[in-house]
Design goal:
The chain is α+β, with helices and mostly antiparallel strands. It has 5 domains: about 200 residues, Hypothetical protein af1432; about 130 residues, 2-Layer Sandwich (Beta Polymerase, domain 2), CATH 3.30.460.10; about 90 residues, Ubiquitin-like (UB roll), CATH 3.10.20; about 55 residues, no CATH class; about 80 residues, Alpha-Beta Plaits (2-Layer Sandwich), CATH 3.30.70. It is built from 29 helices and 16 strands. Strand 9 and strand 10 form a beta hairpin. The radius of gyration is 32 Å and the shape is globular. The chain starts with a helix and ends in an 8-residue tail after the last strand.
C-alpha cells in the first residue's frame, strides 16, 4: 500500500504529521474492501489532496486536521458501505469551509457530484454583522436545503458529528458542553426520526457524558452494579429459551442495552420512589426468522407471563412513519417485575437499529456495479425521508427569520409520540397533545389557514380536538375562515405556530392592533376584572414593563409573543403602585346571615371596607352586594376572591380596580 501513497500525484513527504495521516488512510482503505482497486486508488488521491489542503493545521488533540475527515469517511464505509463519490465528499467535507479551495475548483478536480455534496455539508462563512446564534440558524437552514436535494448529505453530516463527539475531550469544557447540547437538541432527535438508533444512542451518551460528567459516571456505575436485576433477567431468558426450544421456534433472545441518559431521566422522574433504578423494567429483544414467528413468540410469552394492560402495540401490522416494525409488549413476572419485549425479524431488526443507514446499506450492496446510484424513490423508507425533509425545507418559506425557523424545527424534532392517519391511510407522526390544527398544518399551510371543521374516525369534531394514536382525520376548509390568535394556545407543533404567526403578521397593522386589544379585554372579562382607565394603564404597562409602545404591545399580544396573563399581572402592579381600591360585586343567594359571612371573610383578610352598596329590593331570591375595599397586595385580593367563591351562598364575583373617588352609603 505504501507504493500507492508515494505514487499519488498529491503525495508530499513534507506534509505535517504524515505518519498519522498515512495510518488514517490505511485504516480507511481496510474498510473499503468492497471498492475496486481503481476506486481505492482514487480515494487515496483524495485523502492526500485533503491532507495538502489542510497542511499545517492541527486539531485540539494535536493530530493533523486531515485525520478527522478521513475518519469521517471510514465511519461511512464501515456503517453504510457508501461508494467512491460519498467517501470522497466525506474526506473533502471541510475543504471549501476551511481552506482557499472553492466549490468550482473541487468540481474541476473531483466532479460536480462530489462538489455539491461537500458544499451541502459546509457551514456559512462567519459574518461580523450577524450573531453566532443567527449564523448557526442560517447554516442549519442551508443544511436542510442540501439534505432535501440529496439525502446522502445527512449521512456525511452525522458521521462528521459522530467523530467530533468522540474526540471532544481535547476541547475546553465550555465548548464541549455547547457542542454536546447542540447534539442533544438537534442531531439526536434527527437520528431518532430517521430511525438511526445506533447513531442516536452513541451521540446521546457522549453528550450526556460531556454535559453532566459526574452524573454520567454515577449512572453508569449504578446500571452496571445491579445483581438483583441480572438474576431476574437470566431467569426470564432461561424460561423463554426452554419454551421456544420445546415448540421448535428459532429465535435469538437479547438483553436490550439501556441508554444511560434515559436511565438518568427515569431516575429524575421517579425520585420519590424507593430504588427507582433497581425496580425499573427489564428490556429484551426477540429476533425471529419470519413475521409469523413474531406472533408465535408473542403467544408463548403471554402464556408464560401476565400481560400488562394496554401495553401491547403491533408496529408490524401498522409500521411507524420511519419504517420501524416490531411488536411491543410488557409482562409481569411472579415477583411483579415488569419485563418489556420488542419482537421482530432479522430484517426488521436491521431497520430498527439503523433506519436510513440500513436503507442505504442495502441499496449500496445491491448496486455494486453502480455504487454511487442515488435513486431510492418509491421505497417506503425513502418516501418518508424525502417527505420529512421536504416539510422541514417548506417551513423556511413561512418563517420570518432564520432564528424562528431554527427554533420551529428544533421544536418539531422531539416527542412525536402519536401516529394518526389521513383518509388514504398515510401515517402522520405528531407530538402528544397535538390538535386537528397541528395535523392540518402538517398536511399543507393553506389547508391550516382555512381549516373550518374536521372528522375523526367519521365523527365531526372541533378543530382544537386533541388527537390520539390510530385515529383517522378528515379535514374540511372554508375560504372565509382564517387563523385566530387563540389558535396559538391550541397547538403543539412549531410548524403550526410559525404558520399561524406568519399569517397574523401579514395582516394590516391596524387589524393586528385591534385583535390584540380585544384579546386583553376578553381575558380581563373572563377573570371578572374591569378597569375604569384601561388604555392609560396599558400605556404605562407597555412603556415601563415591556419597554415598547402601546400598539406594539397589542401586536405582540395578538401574536401571543406576550401572554395575556403577563399583561394582567402588570396591570395589577400598576394599580397597586400607590393606594389601591377595588369594587367587588358579589351575587349571593338571599339567605339569613349572608351579609355577615361575606363581611367576616373581608375582615379575616384584614382589608379596610370603605363602603357597602345594597340593592333597593332585598326581597328577591338573589341580590348583588358591592363592597369597596382598600388592599395592600395582589395576593390579598386573590385570596379574598378564592375564599368568597368557597362560600355556598356566593353565586358569582366580579371586581373592578378603581380610585378612591366613589362613595357608598351604608
Amino acid at each position: 500500500m505504501s507504493e500507492l501513497f508515494s505514487e499519488s500525484k498529491y503525495y508530499d513527504s513534507n506534509l505535517f504529521g504524515l505518519a498519522d495521516i498515512l495510518a488514517s488512510i490505511k485504516s480507511l482503505i481496510k474498510q473499503t474492501h468492497y471498492l475496486s482497486k481503481e476506486d481505492q486508488k482514487q480515494l487515496i488521491d483524495c485523502c492526500l489532496f485533503a491532507a495538502k489542503a489542510h497542511d499545517g493545521v492541527k486539531r485540539s488533540s494535536g493530530e493533523p486536521y486531515a485525520c478527522h475527515p478521513i475518519k469521517v469517511a471510514e465511519i461511512l464505509a464501515n456503517e453504510v458501505r457508501f461508494g467512491l463519490v460519498v467517501l470522497q465528499a466525506a474526506v473533502l467535507h471541510d475543504v471549501i469551509e476551511d481552506t482557499d479551495f472553492s466549490k468550482s475548483e473541487i468540481a474541476d478536480i473531483f466532479g460536480d457530484e462530489v462538489a455539491c455534496l461537500v458544499d451541502g455539508v459546509s457551514k456559512l462563512e462567519k459574518d461580523k454583522n450577524i450573531s453566532p446564534q443567527e449564523l448557526q440558524a442560517r447554516t442549519f437552514e442551508k443544511l436542510v436545503v442540501s439534505m432535501e436535494a440529496d439525502p446522502r448529505v445527512i449521512m456525511i453530516k452525522f458521521a462528521d458529528r459522530m467523530h467530533n463527539m468522540q474526540t471532544l475531550d481535547a476541547l475546553r469544557p465550555e465548548k464541549r458542553r455547547r457542542i454536546a447540547q447542540e447534539t442533544l437538541d438537534v442531531y439526536v432527535p434527527i437520528a431518532s426520526r430517521l430511525g438511526m438508533f445506533i447513531f442516536k444512542t452513541e451521540l446521546e451518551e457522549l453528550a450526556f457524558r460531556h454535559i453532566y460528567p459526574w452524573r454520567h459516571r454515577i449512572v453508569k456505575r449504578l446500571d452496571k452494579d445491579n445483581p438483583k436485576r441480572d438474576k431476574i433477567a437470566k431467569s426470564v431468558e432461561k424460561t423463554l429459551s426452554e419454551c421456544f426450544k420445546e415448540h421448535d421456534l428459532q429465535v435469538s433472545i437479547r438483553r436490550r442495552r439501556r441508554n444511560l441518559l434515559n436511565i438518568y431521566k427515569k431516575i429524575e422522574r421517579n425520585r420519590s420512589k424507593r430504588k427507582p433504578l433497581e425496580n425499573a423494567s427489564i428490556p429484551f429483544i426477540i429476533i425471529t426468522e419470519t413475521n409469523e414467528d413474531c406472533y408465535r413468540a408473542l403467544g408463548y410469552i403471554h402464556s408464560l407471563y401476565q400481560p400488562v394492560f394496554k401495553k401491547l402495540t403491533d408496529y408490524i401490522a401498522s409500521p411507524k412513519v420511519n419504517g420501524y416494525r416490531s411488536i411491543h409488549t410488557s409482562v409481569l413476572t411472579k415477583e411483579r417485575r415488569v419485563i418489556n419485549f420488542q419482537i421482530r425479524t432479522k430484517q426488521m431488526h436491521g431497520v430498527a437499529e439503523s433506519g436510513i443507514i440500513a436503507l442505504w446499506r442495502e441499496h449500496n450492496e445491491s448496486n455494486k456495479n453502480n455504487e454511487n446510484a442515488v435513486s431510492l424513490q418509491g421505497r417506503p423508507g425513502d418516501k418518508f425521508i424525502r417527505r420529512w425533509l421536504g416539510k422541514m425545507k417548506d417551513l423556511s418559506g413561512f418563517s420570518d427569520t432564520p432564528l424562528e425557523y431554527y427554533e420551529a424545527v428544533k421544536r418539531d424534532l422531539i416527542d412525536f409520540d402519536i401516529q394518526v392517519f389521513t383518509p388514504k391511510g398515510e401515517p402522520i407522526a405528531l407530538p402528544k397533545g397535538a390538535s386537528v390544527i397541528d395535523f392540518s398544518y402538517y398536511i399543507h399551510k393553506e389547508i391550516g389557514n382555512h381549516l373550518s371543521t374536521a372528522k375523526v374516525n367519521g365523527v365531526e369534531v372541533s378543530i382544537d380536538y386533541k388527537l390520539s394514536t390510530g385515529q383517522t382525520v378528515e379535514l374540511f376548509t372554508d375560504p372565509s375562515v382564517t387563523p385566530k390568535g387563540s389558535w396559538l394556545k391550541k397547538i403543539k407543533t412549531g410548524r403550526a405556530r410559525t404558520a399561524i404567526r406568519h399569517f397574523l403578521r401579514s395582516l394590516p397593522e391596524k387589524d393586528l392592533i385591534k385583535r390584540g386589544r380585544k384579546e386583553i379585554v376578553r381575558y380581563l372579562k373572563k377573570h371578572n376584572t374591569h378597569y375604569q382607565h384601561l388604555d392609560s394603564m396599558l400605556i404605562e404597562v407597555a412603556e415601563k414593563r415591556f419597554k415598547i409602545n402601546l400598539d406594539t404591545l397589542f401586536k405582540k399580544v395578538a401574536l401571543y409573543e406576550i401572554t395575556r396573563s403577563e399583561v394582567r399581572k402588570s396591570l395589577q402592579q400598576v394599580t397597586f403602585k400607590d393606594s389601591f381600591f377595588s369594587n367587588i360585586r358579589i351575587k349571593v343567594y338571599n339567605e339569613p346571615g349572608v351579609l355577615a359571612r361575606v363581611a367576616k371573610t373581608m375582615g379575616n383578610n384584614k382589608v379596610n371596607i370603605q363602603g357597602i352598596h345594597l340593592p333597593d329590593d332585598m326581597q328577591t331570591e338573589e341580590v348583588t352586594l358591592i363592597f369597596k375595599i382598600h388592599l395592600d397586595t395582589v395576593l390579598q385580593l386573590e385570596k379574598i376572591i378564592d375564599e368568597l367563591k368557597a362560600l355556598k351562598s356566593v353565586k358569582s364575583i366580579q371586581h373592578e380596580e378603581t380610585t378612591n373617588e366613589t362613595n357608598y352609603s351604608h
